[in-house]
Design a protein that fits this description.
Blueprint lengths: L2 E6 L6 E4 L2 E5 H18 L3 E4 L10 H10 L4 E8 L12 E5 L2 H21 L5 E5 L6 H4 L5 E8 L3 H7 L2 H19 L4
Parallel strand pairs: 1-4, 1-5, 5-8, 6-7
Antiparallel strand pairs: 2-3, 6-8
Helix pairs in contact: 1-6, 3-6
Bound molecules: zinc ion.
Length: 190
C-alpha cells in the first residue's frame, strides 16, 4: 500500500471554444480523469489524495503542493492535456510524460508506458512523444517532496484527441492504465 497524490490540472483557463461555447476545459476534464484514477488505485489497495476536492475549486500550484506535501506521499502524478501554441496546429497529437529527478524518471516510465499502451490499443493513431525533462522548471515537479511525474495526456487542440479526452469510456481506460502503471512502480519501493 502506498500513499499517492494525484494532481489534476487546475488550468481552468485552458479551454477550447466552438462557436463561442466552451467545449473543453482542461481543469474540469482532468479532474474527472483523476477521480476515476483515484478509484482504480483505491481498488488496488492504495491510499489516494487529490490536490483539490472540487472540479472547479479556485486553486493555485503553491497551495496544491503544500497540500500534497502534507500527506507525506510516496509519489505524486500530475495529470494534464496538451496544446500547441498559437496558431493552433490541430494535427499535432500524442502523449508526453515529464520528470525532474531520477526517482521521478522511474515513476514516469511505468506510468507513461502503461498509459501509451492502453491509448494505442484504443486509438491506433496515437503518438508516444516520450519521457522528457521540461524546458521550463515545472513548479509541481520541483516543489513536491516525493518522486513525481507529469503526464500530458493527448492534445486538446487536436479535435480527434479532444473527443477522446471527453469520452467517459476513454476516461476509464486512461484511469485504469495510469493506476496500473503507478501500482507497478509502488512494487519497486522498499
Ligand atoms: Zn496543463
Amino acid at each position: 500500500m502506498a500513499i499517492i497524490v494525484l494532481n489534476p490540472s487546475c488550468q481552468y483557463g485552458n479551454v477550447v471554444l466552438e462557436a463561442g461555447h466552451v467545449v473543453y476545459n482542461e481543469g474540469h476534464n482532468l479532474f474527472d480523469i483523476a477521480l476515476k484514477t483515484k478509484e482504480a488505485l483505491e481498488n488496488l489497495g492504495h491510499e489516494v489524495y487529490l490536490t483539490r476536492s472540487l472540479r472547479d475549486e479556485a486553486s493555485n500550484l503553491e497551495t496544491e503542493m503544500q497540500k500534497a506535501n502534507s500527506f507525506n506521499p510516496d509519489l505524486m502524478v500530475s495529470l494534464h492535456s496538451d496544446a500547441t501554441g498559437e496558431p493552433i496546429n490541430p494535427s499535432v497529437g500524442g502523449t508526453t510524460t515529464f520528470f525532474a529527478s531520477e526517482a521521478g524518471y522511474l515513476l514516469a516510465e511505468y506510468v507513461h508506458h502503461s498509459l501509451c499502451r492502453a491509448i494505442g490499443n484504443y486509438y491506433p493513431k496515437h503518438t508516444d512523444r516520450g519521457i522528457k525533462t521540461h524546458w521550463l522548471k515545472l513548479y509541481v515537479l520541483h516543489n513536491i517532496n516525493a518522486p513525481a511525474c507529469l503526464t500530458e495526456i493527448l492534445f486538446h487542440t487536436n479535435p480527434e484527441e479532444r473527443k477522446l479526452l471527453l469520452n467517459p469510456l476513454f476516461h476509464q481506460i486512461a484511469a485504469k492504465a495510469i493506476a496500473e502503471g503507478i501500482d507497478t512502480y509502488t512494487k519497486t519501493l522498499g
